Amino acid sequence: MDAHPDGLKFSLYFNFLKGNAKVPQMPETSLRLRELLASEHASLEQVTRLLHSNPPLAAYLLQFAESPLLRGSRPGINLQEVISRLGLKHLNNLVLTFTIHHMLSQTDPVLLKVFRTRWNASLLCASYCACLSQQLTRLPLEDAMLAGLVQDIGSLPVIDEVENWSGKVPTEVELMALCDELSANVGVIVLTSWNLPQPFIECARLRGQWEREHAVPADLIDVVQVARCLAAGADSDLVRLPAWQQLVGQRTGEFTPAQLRGTIDEPVRFWFKLLGGKGA
Q1: Over 114-130, what HEC string results?
Q2: How many other C-beta atoms lie within 10 A of the C-beta of residue 147?
């Protein structure tokens, strides 16, 4: 990296604050779906046609016919039936999940590797969030899953902007550290520009504020923080987190992270595979 590693960090962050850096737009299919769903005249047939126009997305959504979101589905269910059974909120979140993955245009091997590593981690976090929401909260599964996915969305434009840096391309370790430092603030900029609801923006902004405390009940930020620790295997750190205490409540003395992981391990693997995760 540059002789002064902070130079890249401050340059990038300054560019985002001034509006000079490229903030990714909401993926086109997600944007078109949102616009369609906002219309009072939108029909199920119109939504189905839109999604059929993107065959990889349609194939992705059909996988959810066998997911816990659509319990009791019969074999051979078609896309329109999947859409109808999912409901529009589930559908909106799943389409955004799929399309974000295709937003990065980088071909540099270091940048691409870091993006894939962080995206995979976000998919694993989202998988844990989905299971935690069902196991320990009354929060909607689809909201928890999306929160886990977008909590590190700020890394994507950071990686993209590194290409414009006049110095040497940072190493993989340096770029990971840079993303860790800037993801929260840049994520707020991205999610605000996408007009996502405030709870999702807060999940990005507070993703690393581990000492955060608040009144009960547990919220999406608690779920995201606990999911990140579980995904990293950081049990010793997890038990000291206020977020862990929020989720587990009165069982903090008897309920361990290892026990929780054992309970949700299989459904986490299911969601991770369904979301397109690799390797974990």
Answers
A1: HHHHHHHHHHHHHHHHH
A2: 29
Q: pLDDT digit string (tens) for 42-72?
A: 888 999 999 999 888 888 888 877 676 666 5
- What are 257-277's pLDDT values in tens digits? 999 988 999 999 988 988 888
Question: How many residues does this entry show for the chain?
Answer: 280
Q: Give the 3-state secondary structure of residue 271.
A: helix
Show Cβ contacts of residue 8 under 8 Å, excluding neighbours closer than 6 positions: 1, 2, 162, 165, 167, 170, 178
Give pLDDT < 70 ranges for the chain. 1-6, 66, 68-76, 102, 104-107, 164, 166-168, 280
Q: What domains are defined for the chain?
A: 22-103 (no CATH), 106-280 (1.10.3210.10)
- Provide the token pair at 102: 């295709």
How confident is the model at residue 90, as a pLDDT?
A: 77
Count of alpha carbons within 13 angstroms of residue 86, beta-carbon side? 26
pTM reported for the whole predicted model: 0.86
Peptide bond between residue 217 and the one before it cis (omega within 30 degrees of 0): yes
Q: Which residue has the tokens 């923006």?
A: 201
Give, in order, the Cα–Cα distances in Å from 188 to each of 199, 203, 214.
Answer: 11, 9, 21
CA distance 91 to 97: 10
